[in-house]
Amino acid sequence: MDYLKTVVPSQLLAERGSNLVVINPGSANIRVGLAKQDSPFSIPHCIARRSNQLPKLNVQDQLLNSQVTTTQHMEREKAYDVIASLLKIPFLDEEVANNSVPRKMGRVDGYNPQNTRKDGAFTWTDTHVKDLNSSVPQESSSDKSVIAESLAQNEGTESKEPTLAEIKFREVIFGEEALRISPTEPYSLRRLIRRGHLNISQHYPMQQVLEDLHALWDWILLEKLHIPYQERSLYSAILVVPETFDNREIKEILSILLRDLRFSSAVVHQEGLAAVFGNGLSTACVVNLGAQVSSVICIEDGVALPNTEKTLPFGGEDISRCLLWTQRHHQTWPQIRTDILTKPIDLLMLNKLKESYCEIKEGELDAIAVVHSYEDAMPAGSHKTRLTALNVPPMGLFYPTLLIPDLYPPPPRSWFHDYEDMLEETWHIEFPRRSDMPDGLYPGSNVGLQMWDNYPFVSMKPKKEEKVGLAEAITSSILSTGRIDLQRKLFCSIQLIGGVALTGGLIPAVEERVLHTIPSNEAIHTVEVLQSRTNPTFVSWKGGAILGVLDFGRDAWVHREDWIRNGIHIGSGRKYKDSYFLQAQAMCYINS
Predict the structure, then answer these.
(1) Composition bias, kind Polar residues: at what positions (predicted)?
(2) 266, 270, 271, 276: CA torsion to nearest 10
(3) Mean pLDDT for the chain?
(4) Which of 161, 185, 462, 541 would staple 31 via disulfide (CB 3.0–4.6 Å)?
């Protein structure tokens, strides 16, 4: 501790963070970087593989509920009118009546706006390999045979210009490039995580998901962090997992890190807990607003309280889809084919429009924007238009019937059935053996449950999603702690993280909506959202880096040899543990 009081934080990160890789996977993006970096690489969490059977791009996710029922449509329109009354803007039917004549919209070919952050167009990914020599480092080991065969065929020829027969498709494409593949190209696009879980379905089996996860992460380590395979044993991994992950998912990812990617050791931290340390706090209600899932969890003195966890099945991408629906309803969207299910590049465009123009504020909110059309490998077309009601879509966080999330079939529930908890100390607690479980099914006589005696005893079960809005979830989470002193502290220590947390006007909206949601019989009259010291998009990643750098004892780290030989068993002590000493170290670091 004396050393921590005198050392400069940047020096500590440089000294101890050069061989620590922090990995924070999410539904839309994965944030990866060395602990010594100021910010991580943020890469779309997807992969595209060339397919000989498919004539055009196929999004290999799962069954999507793209058909909105009549009841859902009515509920969406009702939610719009409720939001409109709060924001003091015209109701949905009023808007339609006033806009019976279509708005003027024009195609702007060659339009070159000065603000490229808002209106810049995406370009299609080049899926062909023309220069075989320069393509070798970009291809995975599975593609070397294809390249070698092509080189053998071309040996002895003196032609400098590649012919049509010599042009090869790239076998694997990663990250944002995968999302920008034209619908006419023969690729299968796969998103590795959906709605906070591994994207396993009857169309995307578990083994395929894990192989793609390994391929993408291996590419990131090589291309972004420049860590070759033979040097991986010199590095350790810090895995910052979302609260939505189940134990089986964490174990499979640990196996990829230690067995396949060959890290020497690894440790697991919860995303919400890491976010608290990333902002230099010890107690807070962490609200994680991700791309496809929102979650709430309360942290007290550096310890996550498991019974306060809430998961909401909507996020930033749902707001983007709602933006498209709103504009089409008001006839402000150009007459172009925008389809986010079959053309992922359209979702990239909608996300950019949402981030640039959507905010929460009273009164009518319009903006002149450039919308792009992407048609079958043709250059992007630009359409200048006036978008309206831009403050309505983000209000869907509080009124989720406005969003109507797509329904994804969940993985089989038995897949998550696990008696070992990777995120809690359980080895020193004795629980009665279940009479219905045969001997030898799981090691020891303990069942991995939470370690806090003052919280209700619950059985291990898959995490369920809540059917409420954000304000109700926050209020329910905090009130479930059961102690008025802690409740008051948490209501004044709400922390918003995730990409959606950057939405303008969201902080006062959360404060107002949560305050109105607290029951009148509760003696709580103040709600405050704390300003984030770090970019909310990667504050959890930063917290994981701080925890890894300051964990001098490394008692909870899992070593590669131990994992491959024995895995983790209850009683081994090789689990993540919330440490008051570690929290004190982080506080000293933040305040120095």
Answers:
(1) 132-144
(2) -110
(3) 79
(4) 541
